[in-house]
Amino acid sequence: MAAYLRFVQELARKSFESGLVPLEAARGADLGRFAGWHDAERLAGNLHRAYSEIKGEPLSTTLDPRPMIADMIRLQRG
Length: 78
Prior knowledge:
Elements lengths: L1 H16 L4 H7 L13 H13 L10 H12 L2
Helix pairs in contact: 1-3, 2-3, 2-4, 3-4
């Protein structure tokens, strides 16, 4: 789990710096050893949270879950 979280943080950092939105980053991600994990669409939601952390938003910030959920659905459906 810790390795996956590091993967998400690194992917988020690189993608954020490249100007990608979380869905674009998730679609282009090579999941490598995590490719067989269930619920891979959660990567989009995890990237939304990681982007929030990169922006310095406090953990107590209430994120609107609708964009995260919409991106997870889009990612799941290809």
